[in-house]
Design goal:
The protein is an alpha/beta fold.
Length: 752
């Protein structure tokens, strides 16, 4: 492995000398403009295979050399991307099978990311260009690291190669036993049974979600192997002072939205020295900071809290993303607030033709300075100052809340949508539940990490609360770790559609939730979409929830009809269920009363609980049996945090908690607060105002103002006259509770 951290903040842009209009040579001008903006790193080459190798075996690295030499002359570092995610025309002509066959049919040349990553011909030529490029650049003094491939996924390949390898994998998994395979996946249904390996069908149109989920898992494993393969090749040439990274992207919904379905980021990140990502998000009046925080928190969690690189984020971006004055600086610091050690824009200059003509970079098509470029420079020059950089670099977080995520659950709930139980019925998806939970925590100023469903017990033990949004697929091992987590004092919060099936999407055939009815103190065996008007009537400690007082809370998508264990009807097979759920050594409190926190306000469902909580061992387990709107979700999680006694949400209210944590909690809905510890052991507090109006509040931190608010004028530069009138100045000392005011789209960073 190479370097697993960077020496200073990296601030930069992707740079493509290859894409310049013909006859235009402005590389020296570009580098001078980068120097002015504080840009100290560029990423090159990741999409330029056809330029690097214009004909098979003929290599031309002149554009790479120009960029490397120019960057070095100007003190700018370079990350080299392996150019394998966009294949050249000659390769497709020679080997048409390198194009991925998808459910839509044979691949056709044109876009990027159209190849079959397991195809032998593709691998042969990809390895050759990687070796030639990395051998050529590895000793260049400007090169600090490498990005293997780009936004790598399996590209929905159902090619003959992919399916042949899948069948080989299944043959090994079941030791050639087709009876075991058929029983495991339930293939007798609709005569899907396979009675000879040579009869194994094309899985593209399978109606068996367990088999489909297994195929998706297999394809994700090919992504993991592919990136490890590339990283291994690169490391044969890389120096010890260079790193290997990858820019993982996320699920997409008009921007970076949720867990990526086509990569298991946790597994794929193992081959990297430093995890990386790209984050795209709404701006203007839609800028909330949530997408930046979500992508950062997930990427930081891939290597157990290690700092990460943002290898792509928007500058001007696509239509509708042109930032308001102040937002570029606010966004850049928002990445740092999650633990990023790098912010890099895609890209430097706007492209003059082809698909991404209007996915605009720092510079517009005229190459002239503009407000976006100027404001990026405000941040770049600021973060380059040693007195700021040394106190913000390598921010470390030790959060007390974790969200457990699962690619298997994401796949399953694509096949069985929450509201319909089908793939075509519409309604919420897995990432909708994940983001509903994450966004509520963000709005409550509760920072969190992410853990995979196979996280070991010692990692779960780091957290006071673990939340499982729609963890549809969960193995017995995961379930046993979670019950032990609660028994040992943890607080588990699970939502509807959790623990429904095993890790291969076979629904458990005992009382739900599987092996956890004693932990949650309830069970259910029926559920339905809330047709018409079904309210959720809060009770007990939720009765006076501030966010929901005076209005009816509606159940969304699905209601699970929860039956507390003290009020259940025994049925055939119940003895087995009791045995499953009360293993030897079960804590005595497994029989404790179940607290009903909400019921359904409908005459047909009024006798069922909607939200329950139960003490088990030293901890508690809470179940949310429906989807709630954003305000209600926030209210439920606020109460759960208080019940768990988490910092800032003490069981008797914020007054019982540490004063600083209580002050942070009190700012929920006013100012976003992100915290960590720097290398000197100082607490770093980011105060972020994602609003078009100024906000005044009591400081939740004491210390020195290291980064002060600045008013950015419409030209992208600091309005010094207005900024000088602001009450918060760099170097000021702030005490806990001091009144602070942040202008619109602004921030301050306090270190103490």
């Amino acid at each position: 492995m190479g370097k697993q951290t960077v020496d200073h903040f990296l601030f930069g842009a992707a740079y493509y000398d290859e894409y310049m209009p013909q006859g235009l040579d402005r590389i020296e001008t570009d580098m001078r403009m980068m120097n002015h903006a504080g840009i100290n790193v560029i990423r090159i080459a990741e999409s330029t295979w056809s330029t690097c190798e214009p004909q098979p075996g003929v290599f031309d690295f002149s554009h790479v050399d120009r960029a490397l030499d120019a960057a070095h002359r100007h003190g700018i570092s370079v990350i080299i991307g392996t150019p394998t995610y966009a294949v050249p025309t000659w390769l497709v002509r020679m080997h048409p099978d390198v194009l991925a066959v998808t459910p839509h049919g044979p691949g056709k040349y044109g876009p990027r990311q159209i190849m079959d990553i397991v195809n032998g011909s593709y691998r042969y030529y990809a390895e050759r260009v990687i070796r030639k490029l990395i051998a050529h650049v590895a000793q260049h003094p400007a090169v600090i690291g490498y990005q293997v491939d780009n936004e790598t996924k399996y590209y929905d390949s159902v090619s003959p190669d992919m399916q042949a390898l899948f069948i080989k994998y299944l043959h090994g998994k079941f030791n050639g036993d087709l009876d075991a395979l058929n029983a495991h996946f339930g293939l007798d249904y609709w005569s899907n049974r396979i009675n000879a390996w040579e009869d194994f069908p094309d899985v593209t149109n399978t109606i068996n979600q367990s088999l489909r989920g297994e195929f998706d898992r297999f394809r994700r494993e090919q992504v993991t192997e592919f990136l490890a393969w590339q990283a291994g090749i690169v490391r044969e040439y890389a120096r010890d002072d260079q790193f290997v990274t990858q820019n993982f992207d996320f699920g997409w919904r008009g921007g970076s939205y949720g867990v990526q379905p086509a990569v298991d980021h946790f597994k794929a990140a193992r081959a990297l020295d430093i995890a990386g990502c790209d984050i795209y998000h709404p701006t203007q009046d839609d800028l909330t900071g949530k997408e930046i925080a979500f992508g950062g928190d997930l990427t930081r969690s891939l290597k157990d809290g290690a700092n990460y690189l943002v290898l792509e984020t928007e500058a001007q971006g696509n239509h509708g993303w042109l930032p308001f004055p102040g937002q570029m600086r606010l966004q850049a610091y928002s990445h740092l607030a999650s633990g990023a050690d790098m912010v890099e824009y895609w890209h430097w200059h706007s492209i003059h033709n082809s698909a991404e003509t209007y996915w605009k970079g720092l510079l517009s098509h005229d190459f002239e300075p503009n407000p976006t470029y100027e404001e990026a420079g405000v941040f770049g020059r600021e973060i380059a100052r040693p007195e700021i950089a040394k106190r913000l670099l390598h921010l470390k977080k030790r959060n007390t809340v974790a969200i457990m995520v699962s690619n298997e659950a994401l796949t399953a709930l694509g096949g069985f949508r929450i509201a319909s139980g089908t793939s075509w019925g519409g309604g919420a998806e897995y990432n909708d539940v994940v983001r509903r939970v994450y966004d509520a925590l963000f709005e409550l100023n509760v920072e969190c990490d992410f853990v995979p469903a196979d996280a070991p017990a010692e990692r779960l033990a780091d957290y006071a609360m673990v939340i499982t949004p729609a963890l549809y697929d969960a193995s017995d091992e995961t379930i046993e770790r979670l019950r032990a987590y609660v028994a040992d004092g943890g607080h588990l919060v699970s939502t509807l559609r959790s623990f429904v099936a095993d890790e291969e999407t076979t629904v458990w055939h005992n009382r739900a939730p599987h092996h956890l009815t004693d932990v949650f103190g309830m069970s259910y065996n029926q559920f339905t979409p809330p047709k018409g008007r079904v309210t959720v009537d809060f009770a007990g400690p939720l009765a006076d929830a501030a966010e929901t007082a005076g209005r009816a809370v509606q159940a969304e998508e699905l209601i699970e009809l929860l039956k507390p264990n003290g009020d259940r009807t025994f049925s055939a097979g119940d003895d087995d269920d009791v045995a499953d759920n009360a293993p030897v050594g079960a804590p005595a409190s497994a029989a404790a009363a179940t607290e009903v926190l909400a019921c359904y306000g409908h005459y047909a469902w009024k006798d069922y609980a909607a939200i329950t909580r139960h003490a088990f061992g030293k901890g508690t387990a809470e179940w949310i049996g429906t989807m709630l709107d954003a305000d209600a979700t926030r209210a439920v999680l606020r109460e759960a945090l208080a019940h768990a006694g988490l910092a800032g949400f003490g069981a008797a209210g914020a007054a019982t908690a540490d004063a600083t944590d209580a002050a942070v909690a009190a700012l929920a809905g006013k100012v976003s607060v992100r915290r960590g510890v720097n290398e000197a052991g100082e607490t770093v507090t980011y105060l972020l105002n994602y609003a078009a109006e100024p906000v005044t509040f009591a400081s939740p931190a004491a210390g020195e103002v290291v980064v002060a608010p600045k008013v950015i004028a419409t030209n992208g530069l600091v309005d010094d006259d207005v900024t000088d009138l602001l009450p918060i100045r760099e170097g000021d000392s702030v005490a806990l509770g001091d009144e602070l005011t942040l202008p619109r789209w602004n921030l301050a960073v306090i270190v103490g």
